[in-house]
Prior knowledge:
This protein is an all-alpha fold and 372 residues long.
Amino acid sequence: MSPADPPRPPVTGPPSGPVAGGSGPVAVPGGTRHGPVVLGFLYAAGALVAFWMGSLLLSVGGVLVLVLVAMFIAVGLDPSVRFFEHRGLRRPWAVLVVICCVLLALALFLLALVPVITDQVASIVDKVPSWIDEVEHNRQVQELDREFGLLDKTQDFITSGTWTSGLFGGVVGIGVAVFSFLTNAFIVTVLALYFVASLKTTKEAMWSLAPASKRPRVMNLGERIFESVGGYVSGAFVVAMCAGLSSLVFLLIVGLGEYAVALAAVVALLDVIPMIGATLGAIVVCAIGFATDPKIGIFCVIFYVLYQQFENYVIYPRVMQRSVNVPGSVTVIAALVGAGLLGVVGALLAIPTAAAVLLLLRELWIPKQNAR
């Protein structure tokens, strides 16, 4: 070929993949070709590995839930750390003060309230036989017994002995559940305190995963989400304490002072659960009120009906208005979905999660849709 001749175009061969309708080798990136059998084997192996990893993830699901709850509590304690920071303390000292306050509160609860609650629970258990005896002598119950033979059937069931194995299993199950609860509570407490101490470093590590050009935006949204979760946890604690203290005062006044501390603690703990927690606590107190005296039971029903309205329309909105901005319908749906997925823990985490999702939608998705 002379220098004046134009360059010839390169000769192109047939495509590397199979022709339409054929079953030849398949080209993959990098020039490697695999036949259908090898390709199917690779896909099947990938599916098996994914299934194996999913089963491993499910096997440690309980541990992941504990870690999630500990992180949730740590984020809830972070506003307290920032409070001391704004008062001039450096963050390590502020974290130390918050940790000491938490440990002191737990110690006071164990030393002061647990013996009282234990005695009052034992007193309730001792009163159960007398309450059952009163039920047996109730006129309506006696009429039902004459019609359906309820008391005879109950007596036959007890004397048959078939319930003993179930009772033994139930007692063992309760013991295991209590031990598991105490162990999980200890693990969550330790992890929460560790997360509080390392929360700033953890957030910085999370922000560093975002591209440098978008990092300020990610940091802004992330900090707002953390503030929302922390505000929700603090607000839920305040609402629960209001329910517990008001129940304590009411029970002392109405004549249930013998069980006031234990029942108030139950109300405060259950009030943390969204939607149904306050109702469950009210049912427990009203049941014991009716068992003690029908008039006290009626007073309990009136009090909790009025208090729950006051809590739902006055206390809860005022406490939560600065932390979470979630419509009522979304709150109900989120709590139901969370409870269906993770039970009580899911219900607790549902509302701040919904608040975070709504924040991301308002800041990222809706502006894009409006710009089109």
